[in-house]
Amino acid sequence: MAQPDDAPAIRPQGLLDQSAAAWIVLGALLLFTLTMWRFFDAQREDRSHDRFLHQVDNARSALKSRMQAYEQVLNGTAGLFAASAEVSRAEFRRYVESLELDDALPGIQGTGFALMVPGTERLAHEAAVRAEGFPDYRIHPEEARDTYSTILYLEPFEGRNLRAFGYDMYSEPIRREAMNRARDTGRAALSGKVVLVQETEEDVQAGFLIYLPIYRGDAVDDVLSRRALLVGFVYSPFRAHDLMQGVFGDASGTARRDVEIEVYDLEADARNLLFTSRTPDHMPRFTTDRTVEFGGRVWVVRFSSSAQFERDMHRIEPYLVLLAGIVVDILIFAVIYGSVRHRRKMRRAALRLADSRDEFRTLVENVPGVVFRCAPRPPWRILHINKGILDLTGEPPEHFIEGEHPLAEIIHPDDRPRIEETMMSSILAQAPYEAEFRVRSRFGQVHWVSARGQALFDRNGSARWVDGVMLDITERRAAEAAIRQLAFIDPLTQLPNRRFLLDRLRQGLANSDRTRRCGALLFIDLDHFKDVNDTHGHEAGDSVLTEISQRLKHSVREGDTVARLGGDEFIIMLENLGDTAEDATEKAEAIASKVLADLGAPLTVGGHAVTTTPSIGISIFCGQDPGADELLKRADRAMYRAKAAGRNRIAHHTAL
User: N or C: which end of the chain has fewer CB within 10 A?
Assistant: First the structure.
């Protein structure tokens, strides 16, 4: 029972109303603060490790993608040789220059072609190349061998690459192993660690090469035939450090040097090191190895967190949590200690304030429109309602309050089940509701309203009533409908416009793909329509377009789509014409012939006889291939063929 405001305070009896409670709370809060500090410190460490692994995955993916891109360059170069009986040096240069590799794929040393030369043909080969304008050309090393390979083309043919001209890569064991592997598998092969012949005495780097074999003819399906038909190799040499610069930007993986990278061939051994960006004397916190498989060979990439990364990840948040937690704990202790004698009075005041606040908020937050309070269950008997209901339904508020008309009665019957479900769901969830529905007036008029509200509950959780507001949105709904009409319907002919057509066409293609039934698209353009506008005026032209649209709708089947693209262009989409393209073509031809005849009939505009003829292009579709845009283009091209053939006729798209 509530006490008078001047009644003496009741002495608290609970533990939390005693001074000892403040000390207990302080101890618990300090323990919680220490726990949270440890938690945030562990979270910081986990986030650092996750970020490091994310950088590792990005770097590995970048390296893998770049190597695959280089392989695609070699595949394209191999395609050049496959497409030509003989590729000249000038053709090879133009092709490689067209790739713009320095901009698209930085880090590549060059792209070349190595020719396999039998030992018996070496002298003749050297003489032929010298005759091309290279008097100093020779295959080197010069020791006698049964089989030679010679770098015949290499672009860019300048700088370091000039040193490789004529070099026999097959004479060197590591290169030979990769070349043999590429030859026998027919696939790109990555070599082991080498020193490129392009290297000079300065800035010597580890290198490697990628080979892709070139064969004579197409009957290359086993190892023996590949060896017998081998012509040579397209290949790319790489300086490892230059390549990694191109892949990782600043040779570290990110612009902030988050990770340091070491790349090894086959296994993480100093002898196999291809590239490193490790900082000396730095002991990384995080280190992980990843493998990159490419060209039949495995690289081991070791990623380590950099000093910069570890400095960035060294956050002070855990210590701020600890400090702030202690400060807050002390403040809470002070508040509890100082307010313990007033807790019961504050609790009573808080409960009264909460009850008053909830009732007041529920009642006044929805002031505009029809404000009402009703029972919390169907048929939603009205308890209170304002005068706005008179404008909406023609019934005075008294008829609702006296019980003559519950809320459910004015809701349109088609909307009533949905609204009842919405309101009941909100009551069960103890949440507000919002809905739009129709309301019937006593004069038979229908208004659209937007309603929102919320139930009020007692302390036991039982709904006492529902407070809400209804706003008349009839004009807004009408405006939205008009906007939709303008967006999808041509205002002159009342036919679907291009936007509507494309949406309908995509649905038609999907239906065709699902039912396996073919259809057709008819692209119709009126011949010499400009003469109608020039002779009789644009109003007459509009009348012709309107009449044409009506004839088109009467020329097709029910369910077919007739649309106006714009100007004097119309589209007819025909669905379910047959199970095969031939059936669809035959039926589309018949319908197009009917359209041709109907549109060619004379019409009278402004007292003048006008005759228009159409040119019709037909494109057949079966499934979703081609897409909507391409199907329109095909029909358009067919229509132009009809015009080119003399107009007033039908033409088909020939490449289905």
Answer: N
List, in order, residues 6 or more apart from 7 with CB less than 8 Å away. none
- Which residues of the chain form CATH 3.30.450.20? 368-478
Rg for the chain, CA atoms, rounded:
42
Note the pLDDT tens digit of each residue in 192-248.
999 998 887 788 889 999 999 999 877 788 999 999 999 999 999 998 888 888 787
* Separation between Cα atoms, residue 436 and residue 332, nearest integer Å: 48
Assess whether the previous peptide bond of 379 is cis (omega < 30° from 0).
Answer: yes
In 185-254 the beta strands, taken as DSSP E runs, fall at: 189-190, 207-215, 230-239
**pTM (2 d.p.):** 0.47
In angstroms, what CA-CA distances link 300 with 195, 243, 261, 297? 19, 16, 10, 10
Q: Where are the beta strands (DSSP E) in 295-430?
A: 297-305, 370-374, 382-385
Q: Which residues contact 352 (CB under 8 A, 6 or more apart)?
A: none
Where in the chain do CATH 3.30.450.350 domains reside? Answer: 36-327
CA atoms in the 13 A half-sphere facing the CB of 524 = 30
Instruction: Give long-range contacts, CB 8 A cutoff, 24+ apart: 539-542.
Output: 539/606, 540/605, 540/606, 540/608, 540/610, 542/492
The span from the CA of 97 to the CA of 78, in Å, is: 15
Fold of 36-327: Beta-Lactamase (3.30.450)
CA–CA distances in Å: residue 646 to residues 527, 595, 642: 10, 17, 7
DSSP state of 143: S
Cα separation, 482 vs 180, whole angstroms: 73
| 328-340 residue pLDDT tens | 878 886 777 676 6
Q: Tell me yes or no: is domain 489-652 CATH 3.30.70.270.
A: yes
Statement: 368-478 belongs to CATH 3.30.450.20 = yes
**Termini Cα distance of the chain:** 88
Could you tell me which residues come within 8 angstroms of residue 583 by beta carbon, excluding any fewer than 6 positions away? 518, 577
The whole-angstrom separation of Cα 115 and Cα 126 is 12
Q: At what angle do helices 538-555 and 581-600 cross, to 10 degrees?
A: 140
pLDDT band at 349 (very low <50, low <70, confident <90, very high): low
